[in-house]
Design goal:
This protein has 13 helices and 19 strands. It is of the alpha/beta class and 438 residues long. The protein binds S-adenosyl-L-homocysteine, iron/sulfur cluster (SF4) and FE3-S4 cluster (F3S).
């Protein structure tokens, strides 16, 4: 019988994709995936962007204590962003001495070797963390789990140091993959039948700056979208300060590139944006949105928003609400500011009390949801093309997304997963659409 593995993933798309790489390593070692309690290896791929992400991971690792006692041969591995935090491996050792292997974001390709060492009888916890990012490792074969969508890394790390954010500390400095490696990967994904390619980076707009061969994200997107075949191209995340006219022109040039831009604004207040070190003003952000709409009147935007940043006044918060209304985001991720040790904002005065943060997040969520609902209702009676990606057992319906990322459900006799389907929308409920195939 084959040995089994389970991967528990927290955090962003970067981590979701890195879990696919971890799965690739484990499958190559002969393990097969399980979601049950019969795993021989469990890997936690952690996130530390907000305190609650860490608490979830701690809770789930702690819950394995009993199982590990009953089955000492079970291998528990903990990796990801949290393990790159100063002092975290030591804390993990104290709290959960039964963990077998600790690794970081800069050395997940080492996992095979670490498992081999640990399996050869080593008793003590094995900790391998690289403090600095090394060269980009190519040639990994991810075991993809999201057909017909595929994630493709274009750059790693972040140099922006937004004052609230821990990512630059745990993911290191910006490094770009060579364009040839990216294009090669996309070509083979398209040949394998993937229909949606999402280019990934903490700030895709700084892609190429470290390569000295003149490559930029607009040039790369142009080349990716020029690959033959019917597929969609998305990219995330764009930092507004680097969101350029050249990039918008490339989006406009190619049918394949979705007219949806994830452009996290974080706040609508200039004072807060400055304190966050975002390096754009409200006015500059709105000007970028206007520029996008000049080229692509039907383009939509999504965003990330933070409330309760240190020093955020009621007036600052109102500025965020008014900006959200003015842009009319198709949807947005909304977060309560979470203090991260080692970041500048953690040391700032005027931390906002929890009750104020709670009230503000509820108000913001209500506004974002109402905008999303209004946009959904506009779909009624229209036809949209969706890429079918899954089957919802509970609803007994297939589902997929349109170019704007809006989810559409429908019934079908055959299995349309992986194909483009045109739906006539008959019902809009909150963020979801329902329709019939035409
Ligand atoms: N590189 C991307 C995303 C980084 S993390 C970007 O710059 O847009 C995703 C989102 O988490 C951020 O956009 C931000 O809204 C949120 N975030 C980051 N640090 C946070 C913190 N300390 N508290 C609350 N939200 C945070
Ligand atoms: Fe964090 Fe800012 Fe970098 Fe995004 S751009 S990862 S929010 S530091
Ligand atoms: Fe992503 Fe969380 Fe790391 S958001 S980059 S997994 S800290």
């Amino acid at each position: 019988m084959k040995k089994k593995y389970q991967i528990v993933t927290y955090g962003c798309q970067m981590n979701v994709h890195e879990s696919e790489k971890i799965a690739g390593i484990l499958e190559e070692m002969g393990y097969e995936r399980t979601e049950g309690e019969d795993a021989d290896v469990i890997v936690f791929n952690t996130c530390c962007i907000r305190e609650n992400a860490e608490n979830h991971a701690f809770g789930n690792i702690g819950a394995l204590k009993k199982r590990k006692k009953e089955r000492p041969e079970l291998l528990i591995c903990v990796g990801g962003c949290m393990m790159q935090e100063k002092g975290m491996p030591e804390e993990l050792k104290r709290k959960f001495p039964f963990v077998d292997i600790v690794f970081g974001t800069h050395n997940l390709w080492e996992l095979r070797r670490l498992i081999e060492i640990k399996s050869s009888g080593r008793k003590k916890m094995l900790v391998s963390i690289h403090d600095k990012e090394g060269e980009i490792v190519e040639g990994e074969r991810p075991c993809r789990t999201s057909y017909p969508n595929a994630w493709v890394n274009i750059n790693y790390g972040c140099n922006n140091f937004c004052t609230y954010c821990i990512v630059p500390y745990v993911r290191g400095r910006e490094r770009s993959r060579k364009p040839e490696a990216i294009l090669e990967e996309v070509r083979s994904l398209v040949a394998e039948g993937y229909k949606e390619i999402t280019l990934l980076g903490q700030n895709v707009n700084s892609y190429g700056k470290d390569l000295e061969n003149g490559i930029t994200v607009p040039k790369l997107l142009d080349q990716v979208a020029s690959i033959e075949g019917k597929f969609r191209v998305r990219f995330m995340t764009s930092h507004p300060k680097d969101f350029s006219e050249e990039l918008v022109k490339v989006i406009a040039k190619h049918e394949k590139i979705c007219n949806l831009v994830h452009l996290p604004v974080q706040s609508g207040s200039n004072a807060v944006l400055k304190a966050m070190n975002r390096r754009y003003t409200r006015e500059e952000y709105l000007e970028k949105v206007a520029m996008l709409k000049r080229y692509l009147p039907d383009a939509e935007l999504t965003s990330d928003l933070i409330v309760g940043f240190p020093g955020e006044t009621e007036a600052d918060f109102e500025d965020t609400l008014s900006l959200v209304k003015e842009v009319g985001f198709a949807s947005a991720f909304t977060f309560v500011y979470s203090k991260r040790k080692g970041t500048k904002a953690a040391e700032m005065e005027n931390q906002i009390p929890e009750d104020v943060q709670k009230r503000r997040i509820m108000e913001l969520v209500a506004l974002v949801n109402s905008l999303t609902r209004v946009k959904s209702e506009r779909y009624l009676g229209k036809t949209v093309e969706i890429l079918c990606e899954d089957y919802d057992e509970k609803k007994g319906m297939f589902l997929g997304r349109d170019v704007y990322g809006r989810m559409g459900y429908f019934k079908s006799e055959k299995n349309p997963i992986g194909s483009f389907v045109t739906l006539k929308i008959t019902e809009a409920s909150g963020i979801s659409l329902y329709g019939e195939e035409v």
